[in-house]
TrEMBL record:
The lineage of its organism: Bacteria, Pseudomonadati, Pseudomonadota, Alphaproteobacteria, Hyphomicrobiales. InterPro entries: KR_dom, NAD(P)-bd_dom_sf, Sc_DH/Rdtase_CS, SDR_fam. SUPFAM superfamilies: NAD(P)-binding Rossmann-fold domains (SSF51735). GO terms for molecular function: oxidoreductase activity, acting on the CH-OH group of donors, NAD or NADP as acceptor. It comes from Bradyrhizobium erythrophlei. Residues 6-182 form the Ketoreductase domain. This is NAD(P)-dependent dehydrogenase, short-chain alcohol dehydrogenase family. Belongs to the short-chain dehydrogenases/reductases (SDR) family. PANTHER family: 3-OXOACYL-[ACYL-CARRIER-PROTEIN] REDUCTASE, CHLOROPLASTIC, SHORT-CHAIN DEHYDROGENASES/REDUCTASES FAMILY MEMBER. One of its GO terms (biological process) is fatty acid elongation.
Amino acid sequence: MQLKGKCALITGGNSGIGLATARRFVAEGARVAITGRDAATLATAANELGVTAIRSDVLDAQARSSLFDRIKDEFGHLDILFANAGIAKFSPIEETPEKDFDDVLRTNVTAVFLTVKAALRLMDAGAAIILNGSMAASTGSSQSSAYAASKAGVRALCRSLAGELSPRGIRVNVVVPGVIETPIWERTAVPPEAAAARERRLQGMIPLNRAGRAEDIANAVLFLASDEAAYVQGAELVVDGGVLGSAAAAPAHRR
Ligand code: NDP
């Protein structure tokens, strides 16, 4: 068991990548708390996995403060933070209202910064912070400006925090998922036919010729969270089926 005796918090642990990671962390012996806004999926995860499920909006300062009070009461400290909660909105620049841009940046960058800031009072030397980035920060996909900018912000946040927290023995790394089958795709406001076309286009870009599964990312997060990654700091672990590393091998380029 790679996380035996460790205490972990996963934001957005009631769905997709966060939920798969919670399941894996529990299997590896961790005590796990998850957050999200949806009470029903939080309750299901709590029943199924035995995790502590806390309803908490990452954008709400009061909720954030009570969240870490609760973690302190239940766990006393925190060994692992997976700052995973995030949203995606895809639209052409001229059809993107300022509010959508702000919502994406506030959820994916500002709230990550504030969550890490609030968590640090419970973290000591040996603790690990994992941020959830995206290949979108690097691919230059169209209609993704807000999302891509937010995930580039996550990458920069990771590097800077790794520098700042190294003297305290706290590691900060980022997992960089590619196209992963999770509910995030249904949540985007894109019409179904445009979403299907987008998915086909994205799949044609993947050298390993399949979309990723939430478990593929959970495996990578487990590594970054574990003591096996004790010397990994400020790194980006790309888990994208080869999109960033060998784009020319994608199905769209095969003869
Ligand atoms: P999901 O939509 O399944 O999960 C998103 C999670 O974030 C949910 O648990 C949701 O819970 C939570 N969340 C969103 N907004 C808030 C908020 N304001 N407060 C608290 N929780 C919130 O999608 P994924 O699992 O795919 O996404 C997880 C992360 O992975 C995101 O950061 C995403 O950007 C990243 N990612 C995903 C990729 C993919 O292809 N799926 C690719 C690259 C990165 P609730 O709705 O209950 O609030």
